[in-house]
Each structure stands twice: as C-alpha cells, then as structure tokens.
C-alpha cells in the first residue's frame, strides 16, 4: 500500500537523479503487489471443518432439533466467549485453536456466512452427526448434507473471488474431520448392545460413506485432508455412568464399545491410504486423538487437571448423566467451581483446557501422534 501511494504522488522534482528515481518507483510499483499477494496466499490456507460435536461451533442452533443436540445455553461457553455459542464445551474447540495458530480468524458456522467472511473457511460440523444418514436422522446435519452445504459455499466463493482464485483457495485449504463416534454410539441403548449390521459390515458402510464425502470435496478441488481417529469412547463419563445402570451386564457394554473403537481406528488409516493411491494429489494426515486423549485421562495431573473421570457439568455418577444447564430433561445439574480442575466439561465433551492441549499436539506434535504431517507443516504444504 505504501509503495502504491508513492507511485501516485510522484513529485515533479527536477534534478539529475530523476531518471533513477523513476526507475526505483517503477520497480517498487511492480514488485510490491506481487510480493504482497503471493506471501499473503501462502500464509493463509483456508480451513474447512466437518463432523460432529467435537467441532460444532453452533450450527445446531439453526436447525430443528432437540436440546440433546444443542449447547446454546449457560454454562456452555462460560470460560472464553462468556456467552453460549452452541459449542459443546466451556470455551474454544480444536478448530478454534488451529485457526488461531494458522493466523486465521475464527472460522464461521455455515449458517453465519451471510454475515461473516468465508474466504478463510467455513465450519459445517453438527453435534450428534455421524458418517451415516441414519445416525440421529432428523436431528442433525449428516455428513452428506455437510458436503452439499460445502458445494453451496464453493459456488458462492466462485461468485465472490472468481474461478481462478477460488480454485487456488480450495486446493490450498485444509479440510479437517471429526466423524464416526456417533455412528457407533447412536444404535446403543442401556438395554441393547446390537449394532444394526454385523460389525465388519457396519464399518464398511461408515468408511464407504466417509470416502464418498472426501471424494466429493476432492472433486471440488480439495487436496489436504486431516482426520481425527476416535477417542476411547468407553472412558467418557456418560458411558461409564451408563455402564453402571441396571440392565447392562457390567463389562459387556464396555467391551463391545472398546472393540468397535479399535476396529474403526484401524480401518481409518487403511481407507486414507487407499484414497491416496486412487486420487492424484490427495494428501492427508491423521491425528491419533485416541492416544493423546487416553494419555490425558490416565495422567490428569500431568495435563493440569485434578480429575479425568468426573465431568464438571452434569448429574449422577461421574456427573455422567447428560444434562448441563436448564434446557435438558433433567433440570437439576451440578457445576464444578473451578472448570480448570476437570478434563471433561460435560459428560461427553472435554473442557477448553483439554482441547487446547490436544490442538497444540495436532499443530506441533511429533509423528507418534500426528503423521505424516503435523498441521504446522500441513498448512505450508503446497498442492
Ligand atoms: C420441528 O420439528 C417438530 C417435531 O418434529 C415439528 O413438529 C415442527 O413442525 C418442526 N418445525 C419446523 C419449523 O420445521
Ligand atoms: C436392538 O437393536 C437392533 C439394531 O438397532 C434392533 O434390530 C433390535 O431389534 C434391537 N433389539 C431389542 C431387543 O430391542
Ligand atoms: C452409505 O451408507 C448407507 C446407509 O446409510 C449404505 O446403504 C451405503 O451402502 C453406504 N455407502 C457406501 C459407499 O458404503
């Protein structure tokens, strides 16, 4: 900008160096815009976010659903935003921290892009959503619909910045996913431990649908994909509380869930390797959230927490009954005094402080937790 101003206010000075002066101005005018634009583009890869409640910034505030799939009331948001945004935590989530580390603004919810800039990315995630349309059907935005919304954004982007620049934005962008957990949890109830299909077949369906969505984004020009694997679902306060309830034989329930998580987490890298073989230029990185989550539950004090078994907000054993705030079925709930003491904010979801530590590992971590790239290098990766 400074150089351009110099260009337009070229003094009419008459001196012997006039010629050199003009040369200098000319060079400055030509180099500045090029340098500025290219470095700008390199440092600003956009971030598109897909998946479930681990990533939902408040998309479910805008759909017709039940309170089970919403978190837009107090005390959600109490630590950072100071008002309930719809995030299922007391503050920021992993994508919020990643955006910060990548020098991006907060990535807006899909339903707010008419009010906010979306050239830095959009968040489509929906609490309760899975890879299958059956998962909490009618109450969430399933992954297939998230892809449809992404395609709407691509159209808007082309209109806004033109075909050439939108192509560049889309291929440079990072696409991050947290998906699958709800597909395995949704069919369970306290008395029924049956998945709707044999386990292997169910996994194939989930991977198949996830693959279709990744291919859909690839077709629009997306190249850089980040996957989170599934957390140790059996250790969530809600599942621990459910396990205590009558009607479930102790052990069976936990054993069943543990084996599904294991199956999913070994299927995920296979699926990604296949896609890498099939699709030229397809790049991915996989975050072992299972590992870092397990470690933080095993060593709460190392991560700065007093407890990793009891949620901050909820009721019943482990505060594992899913109620936090006045809008859910159980009106009475307990809230811890110091939210920094608890790894879990509610009976399913980590607190902001836990998310921050996971996000740091995703951004900066070593190959035992994020491979083949951490996000710091993945953002820099040229396509
Ligand atoms: C929302 O869902 C409820 C229950 O399924 C239904 O009765 C109502 O008409 C829906 N409202 C809208 C605006 O779709
Ligand atoms: C248990 O769930 C499965 C799959 O959702 C269903 O097919 C089956 O009928 C259920 N069994 C009982 C006893 O409710
Ligand atoms: C996607 O899931 C549906 C069930 O929702 C299933 O019928 C279909 O076969 C799956 N697609 C793939 C490619 O696996």
Question: Would you write up a description of this structure?
Answer:
Helix 1 (2-8) packs antiparallel against helix 2 (18-43), helix 4 (143-161) packs parallel to helix 7 (199-219) and helix 7 packs parallel to helix 9 (252-278). The chain has helices at residues 2-8, 18-43, 94-101, 143-161, 163-172, 181-185, 199-219, 237-244, 252-278, 289-298, 352-364, 375-380; strands spanning 47-51, 174-178, 224-228, 283-287, 313-314, 334-335, 370-371. The chain has 383 residues and is α/β, with parallel strands linked by helices. It has one domain: 3-Layer(aba) Sandwich (Rossmann fold). The strands form two sheets. A five-stranded mixed β-sheet has the order 1-2-3-4-7. The radius of gyration is 24 Å and the shape is globular. It has twelve helices and seven strands. Residues 1-43 have low confidence and may be disordered. The protein binds 2-acetamido-2-deoxy-beta-D-glucopyranose (NAG) (3 copies). Residues 132-134, 205, 208-209, 212 line the site of one 2-acetamido-2-deoxy-beta-D-glucopyranose.
């Amino acid at each position: 900008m400074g150089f351009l101003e110099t260009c337009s206010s070229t003094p009419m000075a008459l001196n012997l160096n006039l010629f050199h002066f003009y040369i200098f101005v000319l060079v400055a005018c030509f180099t500045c815009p090029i340098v500025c634009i290219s470095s700008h583009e390199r440092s600003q890869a956009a971030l598109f976010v897909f998946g479930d409640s681990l990533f939902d910034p408040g998309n479910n505030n805008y759909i017709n659903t039940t309170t089970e799939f919403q978190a837009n009331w107090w005390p959600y948001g109490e630590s950072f935003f100071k008002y309930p945004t719809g995030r299922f935590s007391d503050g920021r989530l992993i994508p919020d921290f990643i955006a910060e580390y990548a020098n991006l603004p907060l990535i807006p919810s899909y339903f707010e892009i008419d009010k906010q800039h979306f050239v830095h990315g959009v968040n489509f995630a929906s609490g309760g959503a899975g890879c299958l349309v059956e998962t909490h059907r009618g109450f969430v935005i399933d992954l297939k619909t998230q892809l449809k919304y992404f395609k709407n954004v691509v159209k808007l982007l082309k209109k806004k910045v033109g075909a050439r620049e939108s192509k560049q934005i889309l291929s440079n962008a990072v696409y991050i996913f947290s998906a699958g957990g709800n597909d395995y949890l949704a069919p369970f109830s306290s008395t029924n431990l049956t998945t709707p299909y044999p386990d292997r077949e169910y996994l194939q369906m989930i991977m198949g649908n996830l693959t279709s969505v990744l291919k859909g984004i690839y077709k629009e020009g997306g190249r850089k994909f980040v996957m989170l694997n599934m957390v140790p679902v059996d250790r969530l306060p809600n599942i621990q509380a459910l396990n205590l309830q009558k009607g479930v034989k102790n052990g069976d329930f936990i054993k069943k869930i543990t084996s599904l998580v294991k199956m999913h987490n070994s299927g995920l890298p296979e699926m990604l390797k296949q896609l890498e073989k099939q699709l030229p230029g397809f790049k991915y990185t996989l975050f072992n959230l299972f590992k870092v989550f397990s470690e933080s539950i095993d060593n709460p004090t190392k991560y700065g927490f007093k407890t990793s078994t009891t949620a901050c907000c909820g009721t019943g054993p482990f505060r594992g009954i899913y109620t936090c705030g006045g809008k859910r079925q159980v009106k009475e709930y307990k809230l811890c005094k110091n939210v920094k003491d608890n790894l879990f904010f509610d009976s399913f979801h980590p607190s902001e402080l836990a998310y921050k530590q996971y996000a740091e590992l995703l951004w900066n971590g070593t190959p035992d937790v994020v491979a083949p790239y951490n996000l710091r290098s993945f953002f820099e990766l040229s396509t």
